[in-house]
Amino acid sequence: MDVQAVTKYVRLSPTKARDLAREIQGKPVSEALRITEFNKRKAAVHLGQTLKSALANAENNLDLSVDDLIVKTAVVDAGPTFGRFWARSKGMASPIIRRTSHIKIVLTDGK
After folding, report:
1. Of the candidates 27, 36, 9, 18, which has an alpha carbon nearest to the alpha carbon of residue 99?
2. Contact 58/2 with Cβ under 8 angstroms?
């Protein structure tokens, strides 16, 4: 049975989080938690929070055993971007794009 958790509008560029999301895919939940806890990147914090939320959903909503769960998919999609401008010389402006992302983690018990 599949269980999912979604975190939306994270102030993090999706490209910075995708490689860590690919790293935890297909691993048992205990190993994926260890990877996110001991990684010092900002993406690891948000992926860890979403992973813990999916674990709580599996335990409380579906009464699944945490020891049997594996990470089926971990997807980081692009969210809306905030457009800002940086003042330049001679009255000009340069664009600044502040990217956001949506994180979705799906756990399965392999059945």
Report:
1. 9
2. no
pTM listed for this prediction: 0.88
Axis-axis angle for helices 29-37, 42-62 (nearest 10):
150
pLDDT digits (tens, 9 = 90+) for 30-49: 999 999 999 999 999 999 99
Report the DSSP beta bridge partners of residue 2.
Answer: 108
Residue from 55, 33, 29, 45 nearest 103 by CA: 45
Positive/negative CA dihedral, 67, 33, 105, 20: negative
Complete domains list, the chain, with CATH: 2-108 (3.90.470.10)
